[in-house]
Amino acid sequence: MATEPTTTANVTTDAWTVRRILDWTIPHLKKHGSDTPRLDAEILLAHARQCPRIKLYTEYDAVLTDAQRQIMRDLVQRRSKAEPVAYLVGRREFFGLNFQLTSDVLIPRPDTETLVLQVLDHAKAWPRPRILDVGTGSGCIAISIAHHLKNAIIAAVDLSPDALAVAQNNAKLHQVGDRIRFVRGDLFESLDADASFDIIASNPPYVTTGELAGLDPDVRLHEPHLALDGGADGLKVVRRLIADAPRFLDEKGILLIEIACEQASAVTELVNVTQRFTDVATIADTTGRPRVIKAVVK
Ligand SMILES: C[S@@+](CC[C@H](N)C(=O)[O-])C[C@H]1O[C@@H](n2cnc3c(N)ncnc32)[C@H](O)[C@@H]1O
């Protein structure tokens, strides 16, 4: 918006209306690399005006206040530097719930809903399932489960204290804060030695360090590398999860791990070589790609 005209409320042709700001912002964001410039512009403008997105369409000719324009200008500048919209507006929807976000946590992905669906489905086998979410980030997995399974007893672990603060805040917002125990630690290390679960679920970091450099700038420059970087083969954390999980699974307990689809056979092999699991299976997402490994402890 560097070329904006001088505006006064009564110079209507020059005024920064909703329509005019969208007309300016959409090509600007496109030029700066956004794949979804219209959607981004609308979400940012709705955020700047503190209105639902639909209101942009019914208020096309509304003129923004100076304060709203300043907010929009800052948001557009930051989006032009590839900062994700979810961080700019501080929230993202996941599994039908709104999660507050900071750049300390991974932005929840729709892909992870496959893992949550699996947990909800398998948890039916227990009247009061004890469930552990390893690498909770925003808390989206643990909180979605708590929201849908009122009888579940849930713990959530993360190495990052800043991520845990975001997760705890989200749990409070969704009124499940008293039903999830948040623990800071490296995988299972901070749990009681005799802790025992019916289901252990995890969306661990699984991008290879090599792939990280080739990711979109939105992800590479702004999302926490601790949440993404799975080491040289992407399986550094997955390997440890699989090795240690049996100690914390009760009889017939289930391990569910989100994976990249090309990791399915390598992770199946990692599970099988432990000889601690049975019923090992890959579960596909709605597009048919294997995205979750399931294994039942022996
Ligand atoms: C891929 S993100 C998943 C976040 C969230 N569960 C989701 O699905 O959006 C992985 C999370 O694991 C955490 N993490 C990475 N290494 C860890 C470790 N060794 N122990 C515990 N948490 C870890 C990161 O801080 C991050 O929050």
What percent of the residues sit in helical stretches (DSSP H or I)?
A: 40-55%
Architecture of the largest domain in CATH? 3-Layer(aba) Sandwich
Shape call: elongated
Q: Please write the CATH class name of the largest domain.
A: Alpha Beta
Content-based structural category: alpha/beta
Radius of gyration: 22 Å
Strand content: 15-25%
Q: How far apart, in Å, are the first and last alpha carbons?
A: 62 Å
Kindly report the average pLDDT value.
95
Low-confidence stretches: 1-11
- The number of distinct structural domains comes to 2
The distinct bound ligands, ions and cofactors come out as: S-adenosylmethionine
The CATH topology annotation of the largest domain reads as Rossmann fold
Helical stretch count? 13
Widest sheet, order of strands? 5-4-3-6-7-9-8
How would a crystallographer describe the biggest sheet? 7 strands, mixed
Could you name the CATH homologous superfamily of the largest domain?
Vaccinia Virus protein VP39
For the secondary structure, the number of strands is 9
Q: SSE string, helix = H, strand = E? A: HHHHHEEHEHEHEEHHHHEHEE
